[in-house]
Each structure stands twice: as C-alpha cells, then as structure tokens.
Design goal:
This protein is 66% helix and 8% strand. With 253 residues, it is of the alpha+beta class. The longest helix has 61 residues, at 192-252.
C-alpha cells in the first residue's frame, strides 16, 4: 500500500526523513540502512494512501511546505517536529485517518464516476458529429426528394432525363442508408423494415426508368427510320420533277 513515511535516525539527531514508498514503511527503512548509514532508521509515522499518485503528491506538498527547514536541497531530511507534521496531515489529508477499506471503496466509486463521465462525453461527441453530418446531408436529401416527387416536365420520355433520374435514385438510396445509420428521423426511415421497403421501391423506380430508356431508344429508331424514308421519297420526287422540267424545256426550245 503506498504511503508517506517519517523516519528518525540516532545518527542524524533533530532531522527527519520524509518520503513515500509503494511498499511498507518498515521495508523502506530496511532498504535505507546501507553501509553508509551507521544506525537503522526508525518509523515514526506511516500514512497510507490509496494510490501511488496520491502518496507522491502528498510527499511533494510536505517537501514544499517545509522547504525552509530542508537540510539539503538534494536530500529528504527536514528539521521539523512530529506534532507539527501530524497537524499538517490531519488538516490537509484527513482521509488518511479513515478506514482503509472505506477509502478504497470511495476511490473505486470515484474512478467509476470519472469513467462514466468520459464515456458520456465520448458518446455526446459522437452524437454531435452525427448531427453535424445529418445537417450536411439533409439539404441534398430534400432536393433529390423534390426532384423525384415533382418530376421533370416533359422529360419522362427522354433517355437523357431518365438516366439522370436513375443516378438521382441511386444517390438517394445511399443517402437513405447513411442517414438511417446516423439515426436521422427526418427521412421517415426509422427501422430496418422501412429501409428494406425503401430499397425495394427505389429499385422498382430504377427498373421503370430503365424500361423508359429502352422504349425511348426504340421510338428514336422508329423516328429515324421514318425520317430517312421521307427524305428518300422527297429526293425521288425532286429528281422526277427536275427530269420533267428538263424534258419540257428541250421540247419547246
């Protein structure tokens, strides 16, 4: 369990070592009793925290608070009193005196709450992005729907117009799928069955337009043949008329 500790040592009278460890204070005291330290450290205080980050922050706070009594800038020894340290910890970190299990439970609840907040923010961001995309797609959807509903005047029998309408129907189907995925209700497509029905109706409309194109092509071929026939007949009568005129001219002159 992470903790902040206070050690004393007979070799350093009037000084207390203040630090933190992720292990127990007694284990840390043993680690510090090296060949360079003549006597072992004594654990004077040991305040437990739920996380290492909390223990590290508490250590930094105490070091800053008592920076004026620090023995050396690169050493964790301070000339302070234990009673002053007790009072500081009770004021700044009263939770360290609570039951450890309760503190762990509080920390768990806090972490779950923060996790939920992050998830909610993520969901809200995704929803906002969906709404932005819907606002960009809906104007095109409305325009296409108007074209299909009102139609193009006198274009029903023209191959070019029918091809344009096929492209519009295909684009409308892709828009419908995407808007359905985004949850847009403005299209009237709110369920899978609605989307299936829309897909079928759209496909039927495309097939109808393809038949119109084929019929238009057939009509165009008939018109071309009739026009060619009239041109040939007209050319024939012009030639006959010219021959007759030449004949009468030669006869009278």
């Amino acid at each position: 369990m992470p903790c902040v500790y206070i050690f004393s040592n007979p070799s350093f009278p009037g000084l207390y070592k203040i630090g933190y460890t992720s292990n127990s204070a007694s284990e840390r005291a043993i680690e510090l009793h090296t060949t360079g330290v003549p006597t072992p450290f004594k654990v004077e205080r040991e305040w437990h925290f739920v996380t290492i980050e909390e223990a590290r922050n508490a250590e930094s706070f105490i070091h800053d608070y008592y920076s004026g009594t620090r023995h050396a800038i690169n050493r964790e020894f301070f000339k302070v009193s234990i009673s002053d340290l007790d009072q500081l910890i009770k004021t700044k970190y009263p939770e360290v005196f609570e039951d450890l299990l309760k503190r762990k439970e509080k920390q768990r609840v806090k972490e779950e709450h923060e996790k939920k907040l992050r998830e909610d923010r993520k969901k809200q961001y995704a929803e906002n992005q969906k709404q932005i995309e819907v606002s960009k797609l809906m104007p095109r959807w409305n325009t296409i729907t108007t074209y299909i509903r009102d139609g193009f005047p006198d274009w029903e029998y023209r191959s070019k117009a029918s091809k344009m309408l096929i492209d519009i129907h295909k684009e409308r189907l892709e828009l419908a799928k995407r808007l359905y995925q985004l949850g847009a209700k403005e299209t009237g497509i709110t369920t899978d069955s609605d989307l299936d029905k829309f897909n079928k109706d759209n496909s039927l409309a495309i097939e109808r337009l393809k038949r119109i194109i084929d019929e238009t092509k057939e009509k165009d071929r008939d018109l071309i043949e009739k026009r060619n026939y009239r041109e040939k007949v007209g050319t024939f009568f012009i030639c006959i008329s010219f021959i007759i005129l030449v004949y009468y001219a030669m006869k009278h002159f």
